[in-house]
Amino acid sequence: MSNSENTTVSGREKTNALLDVARFNPKFTLLTIGLGLVAAALEEVGLSFILPIVEIVQAEDPVAEADGLMAAFVTVYQSL
């Protein structure tokens, strides 16, 4: 039987493997989880900045609706 055949892993095996990793180096496991949460939070912040940009660009007169840095972005976007 080759390696590509029948390589499914049960949920119990996955859980046991995760527990083995957590027991081996708990500080590293907590650090990894913490950094993953920070990355998720930063991604959420980044996505929250995209929505207003998309709304302004889709407006009929985006330059009139935008001000400050957003107006500069809209002007560059329209020229491209």
> How many helices does DSSP assign?
4
How many runs of DSSP E, i.e. beta strands? 0
Helix content estimate: over 70%
Low-confidence stretches: none
Structural class: mainly alpha
Mean pLDDT: 82
Strand fraction equals under 5%
Question: How many independent structural domains?
Answer: 1
The profile of the biggest β sheet is: none
Oligomeric state of the chains in view? single chain
Radius of gyration: 23 Å
Please state the overall shape, judged from the principal axes of the Cα atoms.
elongated
C-alpha termini separation: 56 Å
Topology pattern, helix = H, strand = E? HHHH
Write the layout of secondary structure elements.
Blueprint: H1 11-24, H2 26-57, H3 62-65, H4 69-79
Helix pairs in contact: 1-2
